[in-house]
User: Fold this.
Amino acid sequence: MVDTIIATNVVKRYGPLTAVDDVSISVGHGEFFGIIGPNGAGKTTLLEMIEGLREPDSGDIQVLGEPVWPRNAKLLHRMGVQLQASAFFERLTTREQLNTFASLYGTPPGRVDEMLEMVALTDKAGTKAEKLSGGQAQRLSIACALIHDPEIVFLDEPSAALDPQARRNLWDVLREINDRGKTVVLTTHYMDEAESLCDRVAIMDNGKILQLGPPAELVRRLDAPVRISVVAGALPVESARSIEGVDEVSGDKVSTVIATRRPSPVLAALAEANALEGLQVRGATLEDVFLDLTGREYRA
Amino acid sequence: MRAFSSLSSAMLKGFYRDKLSLFFAILFPLFFIVIFGTVFANNGAARPQVIEIGAVPLIDTLPAEAKASLDQAVELVQGTSLDDALQQVQKGDADAVLQQEGDTILLTYSSADPVGAATVQGIFNAFVDQANIAVSGLPPTYTLQTNQVEDESLQPIQYIAPGMIGYGIAVGAVFGAALTLITWREKKLLRRLRLAPVSTATVVGSRVTVSVAVAIGQLVLFVAISVLPFLGLQLNGAWYMAVPLVVCGTLAFLAIGLLVGSIAKTAEGGSGLANLIVLPMAFLSGAFIPLEAAPAWLVTVSKFLPMGYLVEGMKDVMVRGEGPSAALLPMVILLAFAAVVTFIATRVFRWDTA
Assistant:
């Protein structure tokens, strides 16, 4: 089967800066694909080249077997794009925004209600877009991207500047879209979002893809120690160090943290010592992967 | 077609739901039409006031007919004390004090108000000259007859209305085009539309259609209010030619808006730049003040701005009684201006703010 998106050796320069530096990715049909990395990593530039908004300096991009540049009318109906949460017509209500986009795509107006329901904005149908909260505006912009029932959906930082509750609501919407069989490509600088949603992620920094794969695999590949923490004083630091398989013990007034690559014997030993109060076990995350790759602290 | 109509409807709603743009494009010019149209309804400035002290037999013994014509030119009031009257002139409450000593008519004025002083001097000079001729018993050799070129009933509204219509349309079209472009670019809506199956021609076409429709709406509204009896605009000549004139003018203003929208990066910068163009253009077009008194270089500058052609064209066909052909040259100039400026705008146009 041909992949939905195939980008080969894509390069984009802005003056002396190489925003996207020889990137190759392919995204399969129905896949939930994430491009992650800090601000300025080149995520948006890469995404906009895949969408056909920007011309790569070199390299080739095919979507659904068609070249995306120059503006390819065959693809426009099959792609849904969310660029920014404020890409709305000024002073139109939620329903009017969706109606306008529906008519641009020649979609029957009946779909507007369906979309409103899907993104849980039915009760905000008469509210002007400017008056929506950040999370509501994000959901509306995603509804606008989905109004014509596209096969591929591109989302640029859909959860930027949302509070945790709104992010979780948005994740539910995104999962539902993917469950309906759509290919979803999103950029995010939240590693936990990528970890929770994406089938595969590409970690980007300075225009390059550092690693690509399923989040769990990337984390496992890292071979990072598991961190077991218990309430400080549950057992003396010295006895913690003496447990077999412990790499390192650190701690403060609140917790004692034990780093290990073999958690089973350590947990057993802790249980035996009756030192499991306040137990938390944390594996490595994508953030650790990023930290390991770049040698610097990840800052969202 | 559905894309075109829904884009047009989105833009139209964006316009009439915006209180600020409604104010500047509709209420503000309307306000000027009403204020200027009623304040200056008595044909310009008030009559100068002259205080008569003591008996002035030359005037007091005038036949009723001559007295009436003098009354049209100056307002004569009887004063009681000379000191009091002189003080009033000094304060600017009255324009002159009139006395007669023997055969000498004494007129005292203040140089603080040169226009008022010159007016009363002129009036009484002419008056005394005529009296001298009358006393000589000879028929006057020369007579001066003055006529205004326009209908004598011409009211200031005839000039104010076309100017304000031009101003309102300029504000509506320049700001409409510039701010649509800037905010759509800022919000990435321009990019978003590029990824929708809708052609650039459809987007531009709906913007032009909405602006032209708004401009014709403004024309109809402003004219409808100006012809109300208390303002008294009288349409004569090929006034219907104002419609194609307004269409051409709107295209020229849209081109300016497009250029402003292409250059400016933010909405604030865009409205600043649009004001910087529209306000001087309005003054230079004679919409607010007559341009006859302006220095020659200003008149030259005004020739490069479209609004003057629109306002003069509208005056010709709406109030000066000219035929339809009078609108043709302004229309051609406006269209040429629109074409040139649109071309420049497309050269500097950007999809992104960056």
Remarks:
- The first helix of chain A runs from residue 43 to 51.
- Chain A has two domains: 5-214, 225-283.
- Residues 43 and 138 of chain A are 19 Å apart (CA to CA).
